[in-house]
Amino acid sequence: MSTVAEGSASVSALRSFCELAKLDHLIYKFRVYKVLFGVSQERGSDFTDHTHCRLGKWYREGDGALHYAHLAGYKDIDAPHAAVHRCAFDAIDAHASGDTAAMLKAVAEMESASLAVQEGLERVVASGEQSPALLQRRRESEAQSR
Fold this sequence. Notes:
Layout: H1 3-36, H2 54-60, H3 63-68, H4 78-96, H5 100-130, H6 132-144
Domain Chemoreceptor zinc-binding: 25-91
InterPro entries: Chemoreceptor_zinc-bind_dom
Region (Disordered): 127-146
């Protein structure tokens, strides 16, 4: 496979994962809203934290950490990603204790953090798209060091 094709494949893999991460977080938030609207009996303990969801694993120990940590936007993901999960827990806890004001505040913060995660993921993809050969060279050098 040519370097250009390999670079394009690397960018496509990155784009696909980032889109999957966005969908995962949409589903995660939907589950939170189902609890808040009384449609689900899930509790905070039924939800993963930011280190154990697919994005968290990718970011900390998976392909994200191995291949994409050098890209613009990557480091911008962690803090808002943690906030999405923390605020989800806070919203569920506030709902369970009947504190509507705290629940609404946590939901607003969750949504704001979620947008920041999406923006960070888009910056990572845009950075990879600007230099697909860099992605491929980095993968090759890491494969040789194993």
